[in-house]
């Protein structure tokens, strides 16, 4: 950016909106009547970006900001495919009739909106704002307030909450095992079968204890032998003991790293 100020004849004051006037004109380091060049440039760039966004201005050459009408077919190219294109879009009526129908629909929509705004009066949250100096009118929509919670919604939330079962994490893992059999993917060091009853409890207990970093004591259930869990830990949780099984896609034995991935 240049530090040289702009003189009144070098800029368009109409581009300096109210939000920019203080920044552009009120620089105490500039002589009387001059404006801040840097602030004016940023102000113009902001107007340009807004105009590009709403398609009041087009840039060329450009793909994103170019005039889309410049890419339309015309002349002989359009005449060659016009019949097929219009038929595929169900636009078989004459052009003028089609445009008249659209004009009537738009006019009816504007009249309906104006009538509803007049009916709402001061309570309307939508208004049509026209700039004081003229220009394009725009719709102004106020922020909607939050609706209060209805009794039916509160009842529905409470009913759904009451229908959700309360389960412990170990029970959930055992239930998933009943669906998928994922615990069977963890094999013995010697790749042999075991005669223990309820063996899935041991890998599940190890998963919980290692993933939650709580140790074995909190996951031991009364009536279950602690040595079962210890046996499962010593024979199935060493990182150097992969136990491939042809019948499953999970081929690694339980390890501190693999328990984290299983819980996740």
TrEMBL record:
Any one GO MF term held by the record is:
transposase activity
Q: Any idea where the Tn3 transposase DDE domain is?
A: 171-221
Q: Which domain of life is it from?
A: Bacteria
Cite the residue spans of the region called Disordered: 229-264
> What start-end ranges are recorded for coiled-coil regions in this protein?
none
Where are the compositionally biased (Polar residues) regions? Answer: 250-264
Which Pfam families does this chain map to?
DDE_Tnp_Tn3
GO term, biological process aspect, one = DNA transposition
Residue stretches of biased makeup (Low complexity): 229-240
Q: Which InterPro entries match?
A: Tn3_Tnp_DDE_dom
* Protein name (record): Tn3 transposase DDE domain-containing protein
